[in-house]
Amino acid sequence: MTNDLNQKTKEEVLDLFIAQKGHNTLRSEQYNAAIIVKSASDIQTAARDIKDAVIEFKNVAENIGKSSDKLTEKLFWLNVVITFATLIGAIATAVMAFK
After folding, report:
1. Local confidence pLDDT in tens for the 99 residues of the chain
2. How far apart are CA 31 and CA 24, in angstroms?
3. Which of 25, 28, 43, 31 is nearest to 6 (CA)?
4. DSSP assignment string, 4-16
5. Fewer CB atoms inside 10 A, N or C side of the chain?
6. What burial class does residue 53 get, using C-beta atoms within 10 Å of its C-beta: 0-12 exposed, 13-18 middle, 19+ buried?
7. Is the pTM of this model over 0.70?
């Protein structure tokens, strides 16, 4: 009986349990135990999947942070160049205006 339950899905075991006429029997307890074990196994698998997804998300977030740092550095130097070019333009305009 127990080996037969091991081969069935959780839904099949639940259907067999519902089809039972008496629920206060050894067979009913075996169905209950099988459903609980299969549900716990499903929960454990889902928890493992969630853990893997969180680890993957963490890695992606770290990569995004590194990319953001590189972009910030490039934007800083771009601002320095633009500021320098603006100063040169302003000086040239002032020199031309006062001539």
Report:
1. 556 777 777 788 778 777 777 767 777 788 788 888 888 988 999 999 999 999 999 999 999 998 998 899 999 999 999 999 999 999 999 999 988
2. 11
3. 31
4. HHHTS-HHHHHHH
5. C
6. exposed
7. no
